[in-house]
Automatic annotation (TrEMBL):
Annotated keywords: Membrane, Transmembrane, Transmembrane helix
Keyword Transmembrane helix: yes
Upper taxonomic lineage: Eukaryota, Viridiplantae, Streptophyta, Embryophyta, Bryophyta
Membrane topology label: Multi-pass membrane protein
InterPro entries: MFS_trans_sf, NFD4_C, Nodulin-like
All copies of domain NFD4 C-terminal, residue ranges: 354-517
Protein known as: Uncharacterized protein
UniProt domain Nodulin-like: residue ranges: 5-255
Length: 584
C-alpha cells in the first residue's frame, strides 16, 4: 500500500468514524438522570457542557500551527479518554464528583474529539485543495455515521448495560486515534493531470458509494429493529453488527486501492489505459507558477503546475493576464488541451488571513452567528431527543439516535459534494446554507406535532440539516479566510455553537420542559410518582412550544445566510461561460 494522501484520508476516515459520539448522549442521558436524580435542566446543562468542550479546539488549532498533526491527534485521544472515564466512574458510582466537575469532565472528553477532528480536517484540506467540499463531505459523513455505528454495537453486545457502552466510548476512539496518529500528515499532491483528475474522481465516487451503502445498511437495520424488535434475537443483532463492521472496513480501504479503482474504471467505461508520463504523451508547456487572473475579475487562478502536457510541439509561455478570447498559443484543438483545462478549472486563491485579521471582518461574525443558530438548534434537539421519545411514550429511543446519525451522514455527503458541484457552475457556496436552515425549520415543526411516526421523520430532517452545516461551514471558512490559520479560525467560529446550544437547550427547551412537568403533575395531585417519573412529562405539550421556537430561530438563520451570500459574492465570482467556448 502506498503511503500518500489517500492513505492519510483513509486513516482520517477511521478516526472520524469515532468522532461523533457526543451525538449518542441520548443513549445514556436518561440513565444519568435516573442514577443521579437530575432534573431536565441539569441534564441539559451537562449536554451543554459537553458541547462547550468543542471550544477546546481553539487551543488545538494553535497547537496544530506549531507542531505536526499527529501531536494534536495524540493529545486529543488522551483528553477523550480522561473525560469519558470520569463520566463512567460517576455512572458506576465509583466516584461522586460535584456537578461542575462532571460537566468539566464530559467537556474535556468532547474537547479531545474536537482536537482530533481539526487535525484530520486541516490536514486533508491541504492534501486535497481542489476537492475541499468532497473531502469534507466524506470526513464529516463518518462523524455523522459514528452515532449509528456505536448504537448498533451497543444493541448487539452491551444493551441494556449502559456502563459498558460508556466504557466502549472512552476506550475505542482513544485506541484508534493513537494507532493512526502518525498517518495524519501533509503529503505531496499528485497534480492536475487529466489521468490523475479522472482517477481522483473515481476514487471519491467509489468512497462515496461505500459510505452511502453503509448508511443505507444501517437505516435498514434500524427500520428492521423498529418493526421486528420482539422477534430479533441476540445472534441476529450480532450478525448485523459484524456485517456493518465489514462494510466499514471496505469503505476505509477504498481510497487506498489505486489499481482496483483504475481497473474498474477501464472495465466500466471501456477506455484504454492512459499514458502516465509526459514523454509518452508529448511535449511540455512551461508555465510560470504565478497567479493568473482573467480580465474582468471573473476567475482567479493559482497553483498552476509546471508540467501541462499537450500533443503539440509548439511551446508558448503564458502571460500574467488573458483576454477571454485569447487562444493561449495553441491551435483549433484548444478544447482538448489538458493544460488549458487545468488552468481554467483551478480553484481561486483565497486571502490567507491571520486570526486577528479574520476577527475584524464582518464575515467572521456572520458565520459565527449562523453556527450558533444552525448547529445550535441541532444540538438542542440532540440533547433532548431521549426525553422527546419518552414524552411520547416511545420505546427504543436509540432508534431516533441512529436515524439522526444516518441522516446527518447524508446531509454531510450531499452538502459537501453538492456544494462543490454548484460552485463549479458559478453558484456561491453560502447559498447552500439557506437550504440547510429551511430543512432544520421543517424538521423542528415535524417534531412539534408530537406524533411517534412523525417523530422519526422529524429527527431525520434535523439530522440532514445538522450534517449539512458541518460540511458547509469549514469549506466556507477555508475559502473566505484561507488555509494559513484555518484550524484556529474555524474552531474560533464554531466555538460559538456551544453558547447557542446552551441558550436553546438548557435555557429554553429545558426550562419549558420543567415548567410542563409541574403543569402535568398538577393534574394528578394524589398520585405517588416513582423515582423514574418524578421529573418526567408526557404528551406533545412537553416540547411543542420549544420546538416551534427553534423553528423560528431557523427562519432567522435563512435571513442571516442570505446576508453572508451577498457579503461573500466577490469571493465566489466565477465565469458562467467557459473561456474555451468564447474562444471558439
Amino acid at each position: 500500500m502506498r503511503i500518500d494522501q489517500w492513505a492519510g484520508l483513509a486513516s482520517a476516515m477511521a478516526i472520524q468514524a469515532c468522532g461523533g459520539l457526543t451525538y449518542t448522549y441520548a443513549v445514556y442521558s436518561e440513565h444519568l438522570k435516573e442514577v443521579l436524580q437530575f432534573t431536565q435542566v441539569q441534564v441539559d446543562e451537562i449536554g451543554a457542557a459537553k458541547d462547550f468542550g468543542q471550544s477546546l479546539g481553539i487551543l488545538g488549532g494553535l497547537l496544530f500551527n506549531l507542531y505536526p498533526p499527529f501531536v494534536t491527534v495524540s493529545i486529543g485521544a488522551v483528553l477523550h479518554f480522561f473525560g469519558y472515564m470520569i463520566v463512567l466512574m460517576t455512572l458506576s458510582r465509583k466516584m461522586s464528583p460535584p456537578f461542575w466537575l462532571l460537566c468539566t469532565a464530559i467537556g474535556i472528553g468532547v474537547g479531545g474529539d474536537s482536537w482530533m477532528d481539526l487535525a484530520c480536517i486541516g490536514t486533508n484540506l491541504r492534501n486535497f485543495q481542489e476537492h475541499r467540499g468532497t473531502v469534507l463531505g466524506i470526513l464529516k459523513a463518518e462523524v455523522g455515521l459514528s452515532g449509528a455505528i456505536f448504537v448498533t454495537i451497543y444493541k448487539a453486545f452491551f444493551k441494556p448495560n449502559v456502563d459498558r457502552y460508556v466504557l466502549l466510548v472512552a476506550v475505542g476512539p482513544t485506541i484508534i486515534g493513537l494507532a493512526l496518529a502518525l498517518m495524519i500528515r501533509p503529503y505531496s499532491s499528485e497534480g492536475f493531470g487529466e489521468s490523475n483528475r479522472a482517477n481522483t474522481q473515481w476514487r471519491f465516487q467509489l468512497t462515496y458509494g461505500t459510505i452511502i451503502s453503509l448508511a443505507v445498511y444501517l437505516l435498514v437495520i434500524i427500520l428492521t429493529e423498529a418493526f421486528l424488535e420482539d422477534e430479533l434475537t441476540k445472534p441476529v443483532l450480532i450478525a448485523f453488527a459484524i456485517v456493518m463492521i465489514t462494510i466499514m472496513g471496505i469503505s476505509f480501504a477504498m481510497p487506498v486501492l489505486h489499481s482496483p479503482v483504475a481497473m474498474l474504471k477501464r472495465r466500466m467505461t471501456g477506455e484504454r489505459a492512459s499514458m502516465s508520463s509526459a514523454q509518452e504523451r508529448g511535449f511540455d508547456i512551461l508555465v510560470d507558477e504565478s497567479n493568473i487572473e482573467i480580465s474582468g475579475g471573473n476567475v482567479m487562478l493559482h497553483r498552476i503546475h509546471k508540467s501541462c502536457t499537450v500533443e503539440h510541439e509548439e511551446q508558448a509561455p503564458l502571460k500574467g493576464e488573458f483576454e477571454t478570447r485569447s487562444k493561449v498559443g495553441v491551435d483549433a484543438n484548444l478544447g482538448e488541451d489538458t493544460c488549458v483545462k487545468n488552468i481554467f478549472e483551478s480553484p481561486f486563491e483565497p486571502p490567507d488571513m491571520t486570526v486577528r485579521k479574520a476577527i475584524q471582518t464582518a464575515n467572521f461574525w456572520i458565520l459565527a452567528f449562523i453556527a450558533m443558530m444552525g448547529p445550535g438548534c441541532g444540538l438542542a434537539v440532540i440533547n433532548n431527543l431521549s426525553q422527546m421519545g419518552r414524552a411520547m411514550d416511545m420505546d427504543g429511543v436509540e432508534s431516533l439516535v441512529g436515524l439522526f446519525s444516518i441522516w446527518s451522514c447524508f446531509g454531510r455527503l450531499i452538502a459537501g459534494y453538492g456544494s462543490d458541484s454548484l460552485l463549479r457552475k458559478g453558484w456561491p457556496r453560502p447559498l447552500s446554507l439557506l437550504a440547510a436552515h429551511f430543512t432544520m425549520m421543517f424538521g423542528c415543526l415535524l417534531l412539534a406535532t408530537g406524533s411517534v411516526p412523525i417523530l422519526a421523520l422529524g429527527s431525520a430532517c434535523v439530522g440532514l440539516a445538522y450534517g449539512a452545516f458541518w460540511s458547509l461551514i469549514p469549506c466556507i471558512v477555508s475559502e473566505v479566510f484561507g488555509l494559513r490559520q484555518f484550524p484556529t479560525i474555524y474552531k474560533a467560529i464554531v466555538s460559538i455553537v456551544p453558547f447557542g446550544a446552551y441558550l436553546l437547550s438548557a435555557q429554553v427547551v429545558g426550562f419549558l420542559y420543567d415548567r410542563e412537568v409541574l403543569n402535568y403533575h398538577s393534574h394528578f395531585p394524589n398520585r405517588q410518582w416513582s423515582t423514574k417519573d418524578i421529573n418526567t412529562c408526557y404528551g406533545r405539550r412537553c416540547f411543542g412550544y420549544s420546538l416551534v421556537f427553534l423553528a423560528s430561530i431557523s427562519v432567522m438563520g435563512v435571513a442571516v445566510a442570505s446576508v453572508l451570500a451577498w457579503c461573500t459574492k466577490n469571493v465566489y465570482v466565477r465565469s458562467r461561460t467557459t473561456p474555451l467556448e468564447t474562444a471558439q
